[in-house]
Amino acid sequence: MKSGNAILSSYGTTIFEVMSRLSEEHGAINLGQGFPDDGGPADVLAAASDALLTGWNQYPSMMGTPDLRQAVAGHAKRFYGLDVDWKTETMVTSGATEALTACLLGLINPGDEVVLFQPMYDSYLPIVRLAGGVPRFVSLKAPDWSFTRADLEAAFSPKTKLVLVNDPLNPAAKVFSRPELELIAEFMLRFDTLAVCDEVYEHLVFDGRAHIPLMTLPGLRDRCLKIGSAGKTFSLTGWKVGYVTGAPHLLQPVAKAHQFLTFTTPPNLQTAVAYGLGKEDAYFTGLAAGLQAKRDRLAEGLRSVGFDVLPSAGTYFVVADVARFGFEGDDQEFCRRLVAEAGVTAIPVSAFFVENAPRSCIRFCFSKREEVLDAAIDRLRRRFP
């Protein structure tokens, strides 16, 4: 019997599904998969409900509703000083993963090289390979998850079509510094490359840092596609509403891919997200402050148990090095034992690498209620007295 797609068939079950199944089996507290456990902003939910009952429920425009596209352009101006033409430079997608897929399928030709920073979100590599791209990896190094000029020299070449930048970076809770972004920009201009910028955690940065879109650096406005996510900005990950901003010559081929993927996104959710993007500054600063407090709560608890906690500059996550426990095995085995013996679920960071992976780092999600975080620490204390 003929088999399925060789590229997709080569991948096993995602690590999130594996660990979530183990978590259910052992009745564990799941700090593995990254989603909040609250209901999201009540006014945004009300806007979606009202639009569902009283608004348009047929196909909206493939590119997105005008109100949301205008809101995306306004958001870019408000937070980053970017002048964006909503009619030609914005597009709405069914989540940021669909946006990533459309961007990569729309821009990559077979044989094009794509620079990927690892650890990386697990969908990047399969999509690059499906598009016929050739991955070139830059391995970020703990504890600050940085890179060097030599790392980029080894990854970029005349065949490089684009670089995929996740900032803030999901698996490692890293926020790229301006000097790091300037170094990436230097190589992009030198090798005449594009960038797909996964910036879904743009409003989840801590300790007074400011998110810097790669698009805002000199010479890169017309070379970057910027991806945002209502799921992360409004703690509504199940809504799957994303948006792409970019110059018309980049967005046009991406839109052609989008039309054959999901084509469009529920209009009531678009109405609600458009409303949400116009919320007062206090909402966005409060979102980051609330998550920073949860980060500190979990990090302090992990340190009290004996974990070596690495810096977390943004996102929903904190990474801990478990080498000091003297465990004989790698991070994946440690996480399996942690679920079974402590009743707490984490994710092995090596799952986000293809090569050169650290073997003693695990990732916890802190976007949970305080009582859930405290209960997880209590369980860990009983396992590591």
CATH superfamily of the largest domain: Type I PLP-dependent aspartate aminotransferase-like (Major domain)
Annotated CATH topology of the largest domain: Aspartate Aminotransferase, domain 2
CATH class of the largest domain: Alpha Beta
Helix content: 40-55%
Indicate the radius of gyration in whole angstroms: 21 Å
CATH architecture of the largest domain: 3-Layer(aba) Sandwich
* Main pleated-sheet profile: 7 strands, mixed
Number of domain units: 2
User: How confident overall, as mean pLDDT?
Assistant: 96
Task: Sketch the topology as an H/E string, one letter per element.
Answer: HHEHHHEHEHEHEHEEHEHHHEEHEEEH
Instruction: Name the strands of the widest sheet in spatial order.
Output: 2-8-7-6-5-3-4
Question: How would you summarize what this structure contains?
Answer:
By secondary structure, the chain is of the alpha/beta class. It has helices spanning 6-9, 15-26, 42-54, 66-80, 86-89, 96-107, 124-130, 149-155, 178-191, 230-233, 248-258, 267-277, 281-305, 331-342, 370-383, and strands spanning 29-30, 90-93, 113-118, 134-139, 160-166, 194-198, 224-229, 242-246, 308-309, 317-321, 344-345, 347-348, 361-365.
List key phrases describing it.
15 helices; seven-stranded mixed β-sheet; four-stranded antiparallel β-sheet; 385 residues; Aspartate Aminotransferase, domain 2; 13 strands
Characterization of the model:
This protein has helices spanning 6-9, 15-26, 42-54, 66-80, 86-89, 96-107, 124-130, 149-155, 178-191, 230-233, 248-258, 267-277, 281-305, 331-342, 370-383; strands at residues 29-30, 90-93, 113-118, 134-139, 160-166, 194-198, 224-229, 242-246, 308-309, 317-321, 344-345, 347-348, 361-365. It is an alpha/beta fold and 385 residues long. The protein folds into two domains: 6-39 and 282-383, Alpha-Beta Complex (Aspartate Aminotransferase, domain 1), CATH 3.90.1150.10; 42-279, Aspartate Aminotransferase, domain 2, CATH 3.40.640.10. It has a seven-stranded mixed sheet, with helices on both faces. A four-stranded antiparallel sheet has the order 9-10-13-12. The chain has a two-stranded parallel sheet with strand order 1-11. Helix 2 runs parallel beside helix 14 (331-342) and helix 6 (96-107) runs parallel beside helix 7 (124-130).
